Amino acid sequence: xxxxxxxxxxxxxxxxxxxxxxxxxxxxxxxxxLSIRKGASxxxxxxxxxxxxxxxxxxxxxxxxxxxxxxxxxxxIHKLTLLQMRRLRSRLQIVFQDPYASLDPRMTxxxxxxxxxxxHGDVVNMTASRxxxxxxxLLLQVGLRSEHMFRYPHEFSGGQRQRIGIAxxxxxxxxxxxxxxxxxxxxxxxxADVLNLLHRLQVELGLTYFFISHDLGVIRYxxxxxxxxxxxxxxxxxxxxxxxxxxxxxxxxxxxxxxxDPDPDRSPFRKIAAV
Length: 275
Ligand SMILES: Nc1ncnc2c1ncn2[C@@H]1O[C@H](COP(=O)(O)OP(=O)(O)O)[C@@H](O)[C@H]1O
Ligand SMILES: [Mg+2]
Prior knowledge:
This protein has one domain (3-17, 24-273): Rossmann fold (3-Layer(aba) Sandwich), CATH 3.40.50.300. The chain is built from 11 helices and 12 strands. The chain has helices at 52-59, 82-89, 109-119, 121-124, 128-141, 158-170, 188-205, 216-222, 240-245, 250-257, 270-273; strands at 3-12, 16-17, 21-22, 26-36, 41-45, 67-72, 75-76, 92-95, 176-180, 208-213, 225-230, 233-239.
């Protein structure tokens, strides 16, 4: 499933002024165009506040667009009916940045991972026992154990929680994953393990990734293509290798200069390089 983001702008309204007026709006996205091929891993990199999460919210239709279109396999997602949108959501899943905030502390791991199977019951249509089997399968796939399903999120480390979030995202067999800074909230020591897992899953399951990060080092290991976003504008995009070898914008050069020394013995990504 391909994703086309065409000239998307998002302007948040300014504060109310008087009865009818509003202050100047804030342009979070300014004429953003990206094209994500099926099967690719497409990175979006930019510092905090550059509009990355706003773009994912626009893709999921949690925000309206001020201008532009977002197309999935050619159809405009902001024009889908609610039923069509629900169908699309079973093919397009998201992994959130914060595995502490994104897992309901009152639900068991089983219920968290099975939830999308219930929500999309009209599409996946599984019995309760088949759902439990599927949960066990998913936990193994993300490097957890099946008995973990009886526990609650607080019993897990950050890295394990993010694995639970990944299992939940994979439950309905999506084709496309949005990963919004999936390792940013994790300790450096476990980031590489989770990145390795994501890389392996992408290859094994033939997934398309829209992978968001503020860290070019992460993008380099995971992505084929990358777009660099600065204050809501895409300043350059292209194959990862080309951007690394020959950055065109000053902003990209600054991000590259800010990257830690790629000493293979010290880098948290060394395990990935061996994959
Ligand atoms: N609902 C909103 N209303 C007003 N401003 C918002 C809203 N959501 C996000 N913003 C602003 O848009 C900018 C981009 O935010 P965000 O997309 O979260 O950035 P990133 O994910 O790249 O860190 C920020 O300046 C943020 O304050
Ligand atoms: Mg964000």
